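for the writeup, i need someone to sanity check this before i put it in the appendix. the sequnce is what the collaborator sent (i think, or maybe the updated version? ugh). structure was predicted straight from it, no edits. if anything looks off just tell me and ill rerun, i have time this weekend
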Amino acid sequence: MPHVVTPGGTIIYHRFEDLCKVGILIVTLLSLLPMYTWIKRNGRYISYEIFAFVPLCVAVNMILVGSNHLSTIFIALEIQSFFFYIGVASSDRSSQMRDAAINYFIQGALSSTLVLFGLAILYGETSFLTLKNPRCYCGQ
């Protein structure tokens, strides 16, 4: 049961991740509405693919918040970084932005290899990748 409603109408959340997911949705909506009105007011052109990527990025953020396994966290971060790569590459049609997107992609690939190497070392030492160790008996 994720939450309990008291007789006074107050909602008490038992799981912090549900509250974080609601917060992600609220922040996304609050950031999209001014962006849309600013684009309409200034007459700027924006590709509508961005509005398709935003719900997917929000879904990946929710997976990231709710994950309990380090490999799931890594995959969610990688999927989210692909959305950022596409956003940088499609923001402007100049060659400088394409060069920046390629550099950003290369730096992201290098950092991903370092994270995977760290996860491999962690798995080699502890033989698990979960955030909550099922073999840990705290207090016993």
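The chain has a mean pLDDT of 78. The radius of gyration is 20 Å.
thx in advance!!
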